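pls design
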């Protein structure tokens, strides 16, 4: 990244809330640090970012975010190593993806310097909020939304870019069970599935509620055309292991190009694991579950890290996965978290010092 002269103004919180937080019992994304980054788009340009105390924001009722859902976000984590040094994982990839999402949602692209310098300055300022407990981390949520007003169904003329930080525990508690979807769709060709657009998540809530009522944690989305192929889950990309081969679906218009997914692919290849990036039919997975060759399924994502899947449901039938020693999921999780927490060599150059 270019050396920068950006000097981000900081208005410090008068009193820190940190003493009120139980760092031993953190849920995911429900408490927030003392500060946040704010950056406004007005008169055709992004204004320089500033850091202010974490607080509510005021918007016009006609702000276009409320009516037309023009909003995008990112997710990453900050980690503290045993010496107290702070690290991010591939943050430039999050920046690039944010602008891919921005383009698709007709939101003006953010300058790299505002994102990267803003991120670093904020994480440094609130670094004492990074949990030290294994499995916990500081979840970083950059997001952009249409704050400009008006009921005309067209892109807004004003936007806000914010970054908020949330010390967080694991995304899932307990075993993860997924339902392979055969009716609803998350995304379509030519649509916005590849963007991290807020509406992609809102659209999943109802089918996911139905799945939760049946005892599952997440839906595995299938292609919108015939529900024949496995795509991804609500908050993570999906990997299956059939025999010794690790398989994941190729990215497309309909699938989020996950940073964890591509890291897992690189690490798996480096480990000598046979890897295939190809379409995975539901019938292949069901058949493999029946004949015992389906050894593992797991989700990969920033929030989910690597989450082993204990079983899946399809057409009212439940399939359990075996518990295996030295699973790919545990090997890959160790490799990736060791890089993130600065416990191992970073041969791919993914770690980013804050
Ligand atoms: N797929 C969806 C729909 C997601 O929301 C996420 C989470 O960000 C992922 C996949 C995984 O992406 P990443 O590894 O970049 O966090
Ligand atoms: C992430 O993993 O960062 C995500 O954005 C998933 C989110 C739905 C919690």
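designed seq:
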């Amino acid at each position: 990244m270019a050396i920068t002269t950006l000097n981000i103004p900081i208005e410090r919180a008068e009193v820190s809330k940190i003493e009120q937080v139980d760092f031993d019992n953190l849920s995911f994304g429900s408490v927030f640090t003392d500060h946040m980054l704010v950056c406004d788009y007005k008169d055709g340009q992004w204004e320089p970012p500033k850091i202010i105390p974490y607080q509510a924001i005021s918007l016009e009722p006609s702000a276009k975010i409320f009516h037309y859902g023009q909003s995008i976000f990112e997710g990453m984590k900050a980690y503290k190593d045993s010496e107290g040094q702070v690290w991010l994982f591939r943050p430039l990839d999050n920046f690039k993806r944010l602008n891919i999402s921005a383009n698709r949602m007709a939101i003006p692209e953010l300058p790299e310097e505002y994102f990267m310098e803003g991120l670093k300055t904020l994480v440094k300022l609130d670094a004492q909020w990074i949990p030290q407990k294994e499995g916990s981390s500081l979840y970083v949520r950059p997001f952009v939304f249409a704050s400009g007003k008006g009921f005309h169904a067209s892109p807004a003329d004003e936007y806000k870019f914010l970054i908020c930080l949330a010390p967080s525990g694991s995304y899932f508690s307990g075993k993860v069970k997924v339902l392979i979807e055969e009716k609803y769709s998350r995304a379509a060709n030519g649509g916005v599935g590849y963007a991290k657009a807020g509406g992609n998540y809102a659209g999943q809530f109802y089918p996911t509620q139905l799945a939760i009522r049946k005892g599952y944690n997440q839906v595995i989305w299938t292609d919108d055309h015939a529900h024949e192929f496995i795509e991804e889950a609500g908050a993570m990309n999906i990997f299956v292991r059939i025999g010794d081969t690790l398989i994941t679906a190729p990215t497309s218009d309909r699938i989020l190009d996950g940073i964890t997914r591509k890291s897992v692919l690189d690490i798996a290849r480096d480990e000598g694991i046979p890897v295939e990036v190809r379409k995975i039919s539901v019938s292949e997975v069901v058949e493999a579950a029946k004949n015992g060759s389906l050894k593992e399924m797991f989700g990969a994502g920033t929030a989910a890290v690597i989450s082993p899947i204990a079983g899946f449901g399809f057409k009212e039938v439940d399939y359990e996965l075996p518990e295996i020693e030295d699973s790919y999921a545990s090997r890959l999780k160790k490799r990736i978290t060791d890089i993130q927490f600065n416990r191992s060599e970073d041969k791919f150059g993914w770690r980013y010092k804050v």
